[in-house]
C-alpha cells in the first residue's frame, strides 16, 4: 500500500516475505523520527511524524536472511508509483497535500539548439560547455545565464524547459544558457582560483566569440555549484551582474563540522569567511538565494545572505519546504530566478 498521511504522521507499509528480518526508511537526515519499521501482520509498518515539507524523497533498506547469511539492499517503495531521478539514482517520492509541480513544466516552449565548446584557461583540463540558444538566434546578441552543473540542471531540474517556456510566455527575454560540465567537480567547485578565473575571464570571453552576449551575465549553481557561482560573481569582472545560488555550500568551521572530512573544506571555509568579513563592495551584484529550511546548509546560507546584504549587494533569500535535491531547486526557479534575471537583464528583447 502506498504511503498515507494520517493526521500528524505518515504511514509506510512494506509487504515482507518470510525471509525479511528488518526494514528501514532511507531518507534525508533532516527528517525527524524513527526510521525502523515494526512487524504488522504479515508485513512491516512505520509511522513517521509528518515533516514540515511539501515533498520528500526516500527508499527502503531491506535485510533478508538466506542460506549464505543475511543480505541488505536498498529499494524503491514497490507500492508507490511516484518516483524521481536524482543525481544519486531513482527515489520514491511522498508528495504532501498542497504540493504542485511548476506549471511551466508542461508549457509550450520555444525550440532550442545546442552547441558544444570548450573553455581553455588556467585549469589543467578545459571546461566543456553546452550552449543552449533559442532557435533562429544565430549571431544575435542575447543575455547569458552561466550554469554550473549545467547538464544536471537541464536533465534533473528541467532548466532548458524553464528557459524555453519563460521565453515563449514573454516572462523573460530570449537568452542563452551556458551549461558547464563538472569534469573535476570537487576540485573545481571548492574555491579553486584557477577555475574561478577561467570562467570569469577567458570563459565568458570565449562564449561571447561564439555567441555575442547582450548585457550583464548571471551565474548560477547549486550546492558546491552555488558556492562557485557566488565566488565567480564576486571577482572583479564587469561583465557579471548577477548570481543565483541554491543551497550553496558556504561551509563555516563553527557550523559545518560534519563536512570537515571533505578534502577542500579548509579552502572553502577560509574563502567563505573572507566573504562574510567583507563590509562593503565597489561592484554591487543582484543576488538571489534559495535553500531548504531544514537543510544542513540553511544556517550558513542565512549568514551568507545577511553578509552580502550588509556589504551592499541586493539580495533576496528564500527558504523552501524541501531539501537538498534537484526537484527542490527546479521548483524554486520561478519566481526566484525569474526575478533575478529580470532585474539584471531589464527589458531586453533579444
Automatic annotation (TrEMBL):
InterPro entries attached here? AB_hydrolase_fold (IPR029058), Esterase-like (IPR000801), Mycobacterial_A85_antigen (IPR050583)
This chain belongs to the protein called: Enterochelin esterase family protein
Amino acid at each position: 500500500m502506498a504511503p498515507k498521511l494520517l493526521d500528524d504522521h505518515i504511514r509506510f507499509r512494506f509487504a515482507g516475505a518470510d525471509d525479511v528480518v528488518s526494514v528501514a526508511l532511507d531518507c534525508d537526515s533532516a527528517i525527524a523520527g524513527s526510521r525502523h519499521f515494526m512487524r504488522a501482520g504479515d508485513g512491516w509498518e512505520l509511522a513517521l511524524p509528518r515533516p514540515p515539507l511539501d515533498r520528500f524523497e526516500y527508499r527502503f533498506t531491506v535485510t533478508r536472511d538466506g542460506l549464505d547469511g543475511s543480505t541488505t539492499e536498498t529499494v524503491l517503495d514497490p507500492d508507490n508509483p511516484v518516483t524521481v531521478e536524482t543525481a544519486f539514482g531513482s527515489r520514491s517520492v511522498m508528495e504532501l497535500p498542497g504540493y504542485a509541480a511548476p506549471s511551466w513544466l508542461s508549457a509550450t516552449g520555444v525550440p532550442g539548439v545546442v552547441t558544444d565548446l570548450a573553455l581553455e584557461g588556467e585549469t589543467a583540463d578545459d571546461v566543456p560547455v553546452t550552449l543552449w540558444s533559442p532557435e533562429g538566434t544565430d549571431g544575435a546578441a542575447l543575455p547569458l545565464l552561466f550554469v554550473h552543473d549545467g547538464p544536471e540542471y537541464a536533465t534533473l531540474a528541467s532548466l532548458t524547459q524553464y528557459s524555453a517556456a519563460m521565453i515563449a510566455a514573454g516572462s523573460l527575454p530570449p537568452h542563452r544558457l551556458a551549461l558547464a560540465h563538472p569534469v573535476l567537480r570537487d576540485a573545481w567547485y571548492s574555491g579553486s582560483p584557477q577555475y574561478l578565473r577561467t570562467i570569469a575571464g577567458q570563459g565568458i570571453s570565449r562564449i561571447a566569440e561564439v555567441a555575442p552576449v547582450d548585457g550583464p551575465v548571471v551565474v548560477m549553481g547549486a550546492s558546491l555549484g552555488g558556492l562557485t557561482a557566488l565566488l565567480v560573481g564576486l571577482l572583479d569582472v564587469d561583465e557579471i551582474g548577477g548570481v543565483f545560488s541554491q543551497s550553496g555550500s558556504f561551509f563555516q568551521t563553527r557550523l559545518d563540522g560534519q563536512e570537515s572530512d571533505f578534502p577542500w573544506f579548509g579552502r572553502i571555509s577560509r574563502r567563505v569567511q573572507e566573504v562574510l568579513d567583507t563590509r562593503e563592495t565597489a561592484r554591487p551584484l543582484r543576488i538571489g538565494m534559495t535553500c531548504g529550511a531544514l537543510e544542513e546548509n540553511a544556517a550558513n546560507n542565512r549568514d551568507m545572505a545577511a553578509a552580502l546584504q550588509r556589504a551592499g549587494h541586493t539580495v533576496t533569500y528564500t527558504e523552501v519546504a524541501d531539501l537538498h535535491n534537484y526537484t527542490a531547486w527546479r521548483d524554486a526557479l520561478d519566481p526566484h530566478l525569474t526575478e533575478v534575471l529580470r532585474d539584471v537583464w531589464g527589458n531586453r528583447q533579444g
